[in-house]
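[Automated response] Your request has been received and processed.

Submitted sequence:
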Amino acid sequence: MGVGVEGTTFDGWASMEQMLSGTVQRTGAVAAGVYLLSPDEPVLGLMAICGLPPRTVAPWWRVSVSAAGPLSEAVREDRLVWVGRQEDMARLYPNAAAGLPYQFALGFAPLRGARRWGALALVWTHDHPPSLTRRERGHVLSSANRITRVLDRAPGAWSVPEEPRAVLPLRPEPDPAQTGLAADDLLQRLPAGALGFDLQGRITYLNDAAARLLGRNADDLLGTLPWQSVPWLDAPVHEDHYRAAVFGREPVAYTAPGPGDRWLDIRLYPGESGISAFLSPRTREPAAGTSPPRVTAAQENPPGRAGTGRIHQLIHLAAALSQTVTVADVVDTVADQILPAFGAQGMVVSAADAGRLRITGHRGYDPRTVARLDGLPLDTEVTPAGHVLRSGVPAFYASPAEMSRAHPRAPALSGKQAWAFLPLLVSDRRVGCCILSYDRPRLFGAGDRAVLVSLAGLIAQAMDRALLYDAKHDLAHGLQQALLPAALPRVPLLDVAARYLPAAHGVDVGGDFYDLIRLGDTAAAAVIGDVQGHNIKAAALMGQVRTAVHATAGAAPGDVLARTNRVLMDLETDLFVSCLYLHIDLAGRRLHLASAGHLPPLLHSHDPVPHTVALQAEPGPLLGIHPCTEADYPVTAVPLPPKALLALYTDGLVETPGTDITDSIAALAHHLTRNAGRPLDDLAESLLHHTGLRHIRTDDTALLLLRGR
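Generated structure:
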């Protein structure tokens, strides 16, 4: 199929081919390709490639913009991305490395002109130095600019194709005097089969011995792709070795079964103009129990076959799914990576719940359609989803007519033209169903079906884990939220704001807490603390600590902490608690505070100039660590200036690996000084998301702000 560019003049394509071929020559790369952004979906499609057969890179014809890989990163961040070694690929982009197990260097330059077009992709052999020279970098960027100008000259003419266009490198025409009968006679005299391939994989020459070994006439083979004209070559073992020779540009030798009972020794010698291959019958008998592959008819749709390209793609997708934690993660991974990889435009992921199919995520569907389909019973006949899940057998429909024969109402529900219904099964459990849909009719070959069924198993495992995680997290988080105050009391002459943020992704519920206790019209107690651990036990203990503090609030701060410590010792818990208790005397303008190993609160005032200080109270031991008779919690008294602002917080706000916590508290105080005049709710959000304090949150965060009037 030709590239999907409508209305493009020959001169426009001639310019593009010249630019792409010239890029290969200028940069010293072995191959170059142009990826275009799809206008309809966040996907990059390979438009043209020079130096490699398009089939060789079939698993990467479509790449999601949000994928964790160097191509997508170059487009998202609008910068040149270089990966000089396979080790760098594994370190920086582990998911992409799983699908590219070859030794070569890669470079990706964004194409941005009149609009953001996409990216230029370049491939070098493995012997390229680990980094680009300044000269090479200049060649890459100038080549990207030239290609961008070609795209800009006809902005409405280019589109993402279904199959990339193959561009031949520009090379001097061969001298006819250097070829002829002498070369042909030389090769015909050889007992081994000799073949020549161009860079697109087509056979350009073969001697009589090669034709005999392949079992076909030479005229039937010249100009064809061997895996199409010789069915038994359409096997993963040949494709993987061929791809390794093309990418690595180094000789490859292997032994593989041929037609009948013959085995062949095959050697591939890649070069700048193509690949030379030598075939010879194997003299040794094959290992016991080894049989040659079954010869099947050639596939009508080669890119859909389950070759090693698809196998590497499955490895890549498995790596991506292994990093998911929540159901939303699984849905996003399916949408961002699996849809582009299989050319689908729509997706619905459902989970089995109490005899119904609950839709947990979707893409490419009208929300009204999703609302009608959400919650259908498992025995529904409206769509095949219920039957597929009950039977555990996937279903593929190549057209609306085919779907209508089994489910007459289904095609009209979504307007899609082809569907793959994949049951999500883990052992004997029915986890849910994944539906991939297409905007045009599509045939699902045996290779497509095999890969999609394998993919369904990966999704099922990830979904099963995610459903369990979400259920446990919702239970724990709901418990914690129930134990935190639903609303803080109103205290005259005092404005209050509070925030709680759970830990970063993948961490269970924690024990951070805060509270405000009204002690009259002119007094209040403020409390903040952190229970050791991130689990339901920590959350439950947090509720007990809050209850103990409430029971003794109004006493001297040291006594409140001592009595709370006594409660914890009686509970015989093995968890420790840090806690800060402040008695706020609004009438006397005094603060009395006691600390059980907690971080110092911040006090901002305008006397004599705006400034913020950390109130250093003499700390007592953590609650629950010393017997009640030994625990002592000294009380510190400080003046409370008019309209002063107090900030109480837990270590999740200021603790960053590799950073001294004193520096983090100083940064928090500095930000508080600069923004103290803002409304308290705005100030609370600002403190939580201030760039100077932003980090990967590995602990819960509680924040309590109090401002006198």
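Summary generated for your ticket: Residues 1-10, 285-306, 691-696 have pLDDT under 50 and may be disordered. Residues 190-283 form a domain with the Beta-Lactamase fold (CATH 3.30.450.20).
If you did not submit this request, please reply to this message.
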